[in-house]
Amino acid sequence: MSLPSLLDEILATPTDDASLEAAQQRSLQASMAGRRQAVHSWEIGLPIAEELRATLAGDPDEALSLHVSLNAWERGDVCLALYEARCPAPSFRAFLEETWNHCHGGLMAAVARECAWWPDLLIAALFEYADFPTPDHLPEQFTIWRGTNGIDIDEAVEGYCWTLNRDTAVWFSERFATAERRPLVVAAEVERREVWTYINVNGEEEIVLPGVDVDRAWVDTDAIPKAATA
Fold first, then answer.
1. Which bin fits 175, alpha (ψ -120 to 50), beta or left (φ > 0)?
2. First CA to last CA across the chain, in angstroms?
3. Judging by beta carbons within 10 Å of its beta carbon (0-12, 13-18, 19+), is residue 153 exposed, middle or buried?
4. What is the helix (H) or strand (E) element at residue 136, kind and residue range?
5. pLDDT, tens digit, for every residue of 52-104?
6. What is the pLDDT of residue 187?
7. How far apart, in whole angstroms, are the C-alpha atoms of residue 96 and residue 76?
8. 48: nearest Cα among 98, 91, 6
9. If 0-12 CB within 10 Å is exposed, 13-18 middle and 19+ buried, where does residue 20 land?
10. CB distance 185 to 222 below 8 Å
11. Least CB-packed of 24, 91, 194, 206 within 10 Å?
12. According to the model, what pLDDT value does residue 40 have?
């Protein structure tokens, strides 16, 4: 059975769960129907049915199980479908965080298909709806870094992914650097209220936020060995 078909079946089944209101059901049905051309063969196992139902009912643990059960290339579209169905924030937050961490490319591809002209608006909407708590350990104002290569500071500051760890930024700047794609580490001063979320997987201390104004950023010239930029 394909995932769109299963969603139709689940949403057409009467339920006593008050969280699955009629408007939510119609929204998710329409969302998945609109994705059939992008994803033709979402073949899945039956356990996903219960995981999906529980996710829509607001269970974060089942949202994580649903994420694991899906193929990597399905998760971005399912994330958008859950958002459009106004999946309860706790379960949506869990699904979005896992998708951002482990299927970032798939999510960005789904966003580009859905909102090619203004992808930043959709990404912002996802994080604002997820409503991640602001970490207490972050000060009101602090420095973040972003490691890139092959681009200039004007483009670098538009990225969502930054870090509190300068060494992590250096690692990302050098990861795919070549003689043509020179490494670049950018630093910026930001305020805690700007942060969408903080994710510390593998010690990366990632700060996710909607980019930074270039006038608040600078190239950290001391971060990159001079041999790498010569």
1. alpha
2. 56
3. middle
4. none
5. 889 989 999 999 999 998 888 889 989 998 998 889 999 999 999 999 999 99
6. 97
7. 9
8. 6
9. buried
10. no
11. 194
12. 40
**Cβ-count burial 70-100 (b if 16+ within 10 Å, e if not):** beeebbbbbbbbbbbbbbbeebbbbbbbbbb
Query: Which residues, at least 6 apart from 230, have a Cβ–Cβ distance to it below 8 Å?
Result: none
Q: To which H or E segment does residue 111 belong?
A: helix 104-114
111: tokens are: 């966003």
On whether the CB atoms of residues 91 and 55 are closer than 8 A, the answer is yes
Q: Are 185 and 119 in contact (CB under 8 A)?
A: no
In sign, the C-alpha dihedral spanning 97, 106, 150, 157 is negative
Q: 140-149: per-residue pLDDT in tens?
A: 999 999 999 9
Determine the Cα–Cα distance for residues 133 and 156; give it in Å rounded to an integer.
26
| Strand ranges, E, within the chain | 141-149, 161-163, 183-191, 197-199, 206-208, 217-219
pLDDT of residue 169: 96
